[in-house]
Amino acid sequence: MCGIVGYVGEAHAKEKIIDGLKKLEYRGYDSAGIALPVDGKIAIRKHVGEIKNLEKIILDPEFDSPIGIGHTRWATHGAPSDINSHPHGNEDNSIAIVHNGIIENYQEIKEWLAKDYGVKFKSETDSEVIAHLIGIFYDGDLLEAVNKAVAEMRGAYAVCAIAAAEPDKIVAVRKDAPLVAGIGKGFNFIASDIPALLKYVREVYLIENNETIVITADNITIYDENGKTVKRDVFHVTWDADAAEKEGYEHFMLKEIHEQPKAVYETLVRRINDDGSINLDGISMTKEDIEGYNKIYIVACGTAYHAGLVGKLVIEKMAKVPVEVDVASEFRYRDPFVDENTLFIAISQSGETLDTLAALREAKRKGARVLSVVNVVGSSVSRESDDVFYTWAGPEIAVASTKAYTTQLICMYLIGLYMGRTKGTIETEYYNKVLDQLKELPDKVDGLLKSEDKIAALAKKYHRREQVFFIGRGIDCGVSYEGSLKLKEISYINSFAIAAGELKHGTIALMEEESLVFALATQDFLYEKMVSNVEEIKARGARVIGVAKDGRTEIEKVADEVIYIPDCIDEVAPVVAVIPLQIFAYYVAKERGCNIDKPKNLAKSVTVE
Ligand code: AGP
Prior knowledge:
The chain is built from 19 helices and 25 strands. By secondary structure, the protein is of the alpha/beta class. Helix 4 (128-137) crosses helix 5 (142-152) and helix 15 packs parallel to helix 19 (573-591).
């Protein structure tokens, strides 16, 4: 995710900014840049790639100032490039900004600024409009210009701005994106994250939503949304830098589990317009294309493949087109039936998984149209696809995928809804119902995360079991596979997922008192069948943890424990049902003393066959 560091002090802002940006490297980024007021103008230097590339181009003593703003970018709008990197300036670089977040109405603003002010844009980013807006409103008072600009913007943002004509201050503003001010003596900082400041300060102000802040070398003034000054208590940071990177969580995996409400929200907000239509900005698939596909392949590896299993059922139901799901390492060698009427959907968090990339090339060679669902902007899969549907989950650092999976699921729903609506294969009432349910998911996931302690207690109780099964029917079957993979990859327990109806055809022979079974029973129309499956398992003495929707209590009569998830329509249940499974896997691995973020034998991105 993007990082912001700003400094106002006595000298050499660039050095402090670089120190701060380096502390944010762990979050992932693709480019970095710095802006400083120099000789009545703002000088901007930025470079794609690592911070060391930026360091090489800021060595000259002329590029120096006691004040400056810096940024590490994780591409969202526009591929990673020097031009798209931050900071962005207005046309004469009298204003420069750095921005984290997304400006939802940037297209509208862009058109307006081009038409009424003749503004020419340099980059493909949403962020650049902020610099131009501030420039247009600027009349000698940066604070006032920032406030006027913000009034035009919709979305989530943390923005820091500097003006050539006021080279003693930074003005910053936040809405739904973090911002902290670091309190020094004779200098002050602003940053998106505490780790960026810890080398220089331990006292900070935590900036709240809709607050604007003015920072000079000797003063930090915070204003509320009505322009009144706010008195804020000083927050003393006691954690070390390593803990701060994880924002207080013990592991990146736990942090990323907790980031899911936000990640799901980000994925949705970028694709759902105010009128309820789905916005396919950047995707060139036409109505004719969609009507012409007679088959869809979803191809991926690991967790991304499991998202595809859910995607198959969702897209088939909504778009009424046959969907096959395959693991990439099989697809690429089995001479699949693919032609120009096939839509090939590749799913990949990293966008660098070699098998997925090879499968994509094979599908393209045979004439398929390629739509990829990818998290890392500018990755190989995204570059080689005809269209890209980004997941916007932000960087995922733990090897075990969590927020990438839930956001991949969201993409599956959005693709299904869009295709269904375009083809006329779903009723408006159903479309609206699914859309409403999707919008409720961030809160539902958030609510579920509050029962973490209960699931941690179950993990403590069962962490010594050496054989765990995950069973489910329909869409729950795909979630079972994901729950099982999560558990085995970080706790090294032998876990196994199977369609519940298949149990009696062999696997039930393994059930014994020491077995633990997760029975996913979130599908209303299959609920009774799942209860019967649980009875069969109980008859063999195994322990059963049921996962059911609130109010579906019948399963309590047969299962040993039940985890309830918030009520929702069957289709979207995977997004909430997987959360307790992720938490369970995490706490079991913790109880067993495993290396949770970097499990043995595994890599985050598998770029070899
Ligand atoms: C999931 O927890 C794993 N780390 C793994 O299965 C992963 O999902 C798989 O390697 C695919 O990676 P990708 O999404 O980056 O292509």
